[in-house]
Amino acid sequence: MNRLFGSKSTAPKPTLTSAISNVDTHIESLDVKLAKLNAELQTHQARLSKMRDGPGKSAIKAKALKILQRRKMYESQRDQLQQQSWNMEQADMMTSNLKNVMTTVDAMKTTNKTLKQQYGKINIDKIERMQDEMADLMEVGNEIQESLGRAYDVPEDVDEAELDAELEALGDEAEFEMGGAVGESELPAFMRDEVPTFVDEPPEAGKVKEAAG
What we know:
mainly alpha; 7 helices
């Protein structure tokens, strides 16, 4: 059967890139031919400008006209091929952009699926309760800090004048306690002001002086 109808072709299918490359190759070949024809035309033109009218000049002119016809044909073919190449390049660009779009869409779908799986495991109510508990704990911590930093039995509004008077009184008391020795003609304050209950009679000044001597 394969001999009658031929076997299935296993050659790879042409792509836009390969087609563009083939067309560009043909365009380059036509450019080479056009350059050669232009060189021949310049040569014939230079000879015609130096020749007088006659059969020789007419023959060269006929050759130049044929070359011009071939050049126009090649130029027309080149223009057509260039347009084909441009159209294929546009189609290839659109195909490439479409592939990029599809790749982006697939990536977004995968990301969306992953986000749904991850966020689906999160309980918003638990997070809100945790936030409320943390706020309560912070408030308790602030109250504890305020309580620990509270002053003990220290009046907030103390008059500086009263403090100065109290400090001066303490100074006078210290001078009185550290004053000179007790006078010889008078008794100590604890013996003059009050007599202990276990003493029947108050001591006499003379006896106290003798005891002290």
